[in-house]
């Protein structure tokens, strides 16, 4: 009888997939809970979700873990016994307005629609019109019960593409090609270039093709770089001053996670907060050898006053190369200078 009931539930799920334009009900997702329940596990004293047969993720701090990703606020755990991960689907294939539900380990269901997939590195995929606040750590599923991500309990969720990426590495790793991009109409344009990265890109370049594919969406470009393995070489075509140029982009580890307060001075061992106060100074770095300490505040470079990380990135990209520049810092009312040189690329 139990087998017949389970089969009936699956038949109802697959039948519902055929007419999924109608609003689903909580009952429609009961089979999803039963199907995905084995993926909810307890490892190292915390509730987690199996992503692969050997790795799981959790928002709770476990007794031991492989790594913690501060961008996603997730812990990656390793299991010594085989896990039963949820069948995952491609969330980037979803369209705005498609039905989704968050289904927790207690079978609590909240139904709504996809608001939008994030278009950059400043947010996460969003919910729209959910019947209740999604439970943090709940599996986000569609009407066919496949997993699209994990709810963050803030009206959005972490998509499978990020989950698959973080469980693939033992340390926090995101790829970088030494530049930042913005969407301008249907064009992807380089807005900043890290002067310490040796990137062949230049501010104002318009990205046309990436790995022989035409690009017009910022999300695709950003995530191609983020998720590419270290030392990958990506072929790119850009428009620069009216000419089409072919470049080879070398993917290196990103110095800071997405959403961090980036100035490009991280290459010299300086990590700032949003007010340009040093959060930390890396050991054995140029910043340390010049005597900088956590708490020092950057005031200006040469004669240019600075207040935000974006202003620093913009200024560094415009400074003459292979020349000495002066950085003014404040330490509890005491002002002092250190020197800076932008390398010739």
UniProtKB/TrEMBL annotation:
Q: Which residues form the signal peptide?
A: 1-20
Q: Which residues form the PDZ domain?
A: 256-307
The alphabetical list of record keywords is: Signal
Q: Which SMART domains match?
A: PDZ
Q: Which InterPro entries match?
A: DUF7488, PDZ, PDZ_6, PDZ_sf
Spell out the protein name for this chain. Answer: PDZ domain-containing protein
What organism is this sequence from?
Sulfurospirillum tamanense
């Amino acid at each position: 009888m139990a087998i017949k009931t389970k089969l009936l539930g699956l038949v109802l799920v697959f039948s519902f997939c055929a007419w999924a334009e109608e609003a689903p009900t909580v009952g429609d997702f009961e089979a999803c809970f039963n199907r995905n329940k084995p993926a909810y596990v307890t490892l190292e004293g915390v509730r987690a979700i199996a992503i692969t047969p050997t790795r799981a993720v959790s928002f709770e701090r476990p007794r031991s873990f492989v790594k913690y990703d501060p961008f996603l606020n997730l812990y990656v755990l390793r299991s010594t016994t085989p896990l039963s991960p949820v069948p995952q689907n491609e969330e980037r294939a979803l369209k705005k307005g498609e039905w989704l539900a968050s289904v927790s380990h207690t079978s609590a269901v909240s139904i709504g629609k996809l608001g939008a997939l994030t278009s950059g590195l400043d947010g996460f995929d969003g919910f729209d019109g959910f019947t209740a606040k999604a439970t943090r750590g709940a599996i986000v599923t569609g009407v066919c019960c496949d997993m699209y991500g994990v709810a963050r309990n803030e009206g959005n969720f972490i998509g499978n593409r990020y989950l698959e990426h973080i469980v693939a590495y033992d340390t926090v790793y995101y790829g970088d090609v030494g530049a930042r991009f913005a969407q301008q109409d249907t064009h992807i344009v380089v807005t900043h270039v890290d002067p310490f990265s040796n990137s062949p890109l230049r501010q104002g370049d318009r990205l046309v093709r990436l790995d022989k594919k035409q690009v017009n969406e910022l999300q695709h470009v950003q995530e191609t770089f983020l998720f590419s393995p270290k030392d990958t070489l990506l072929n790119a075509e850009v428009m620069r001053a009216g000419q089409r140029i072919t470049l080879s982009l070398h993917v290196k580890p990103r110095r800071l996670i997405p959403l961090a307060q980036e100035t490009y001075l991280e290459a010299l061992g300086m990590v700032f907060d949003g007010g340009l106060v040093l959060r930390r100074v890396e050991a054995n770095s140029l910043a340390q050898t010049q005597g900088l300490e956590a708490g020092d505040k950057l005031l200006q470079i040469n004669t240019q006053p600075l207040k935000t990380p974006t202003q620093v990135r913009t200024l560094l990209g415009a400074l003459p190369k292979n020349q000495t520049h002066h950085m003014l810092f404040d330490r509890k009312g005491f002002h002092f200078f250190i020197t800076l040189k932008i390398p010739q690329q």
